[in-house]
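ok trying this again, last paste got cut off
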Amino acid sequence: MSSLIVVLTLFFLYATYRHWSQRSRFQIENKQSVLEGDNSFMDPKKSDLPGYAILETAKGSITVELFKDSSPEVVDQFLDLCQRGHFDGMLFRHVIKHYVIQAGDSDKLGAAEDWTLKGKHYSQLDTSLKHEAFMLGTSKAKHDKRGFELFITTAPIPDLNEKLIVFGKVVKGEDVVQVTSKLQFLSM
């Protein structure tokens, strides 16, 4: 009888943990990075990751479609960082007009690990989508393990195809990206 109680208690704890861990993936924890679902998580045959993210900047909102089918690990980690508030107040600190805007805080030691290569062989990452205008990407090879780099291209840039992993595309707010590309720094 006591072993049955122990088993039921363990089952209850496990079920509660699964429920809360799944719920926390979709729960909005801050107003700086708001995640929206696209109802694909309602279909158990599809990935349970939200299909869109909204980046709130001082100049307006940027809505990005996340490529969860082609880069599920990258999208999952990006969403996890959003929920933990990693991008709150982060600056687009590297802005090159007609090229790219880059956000990232390499001064936060341990803020994010090199998750783009964790558990993956480098050649498996070479299938990344190409860098057209308004693509969202991150570095393929971060060796310093000090922070997360986020790139949004403002023009087609074939030079970045082998250097960055594309995991999203701006679908709304292209004007905000263009305005940002003309500024020196902009806070998210």
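PB: full thing came through this time. The longest strand covers residues 164-172.
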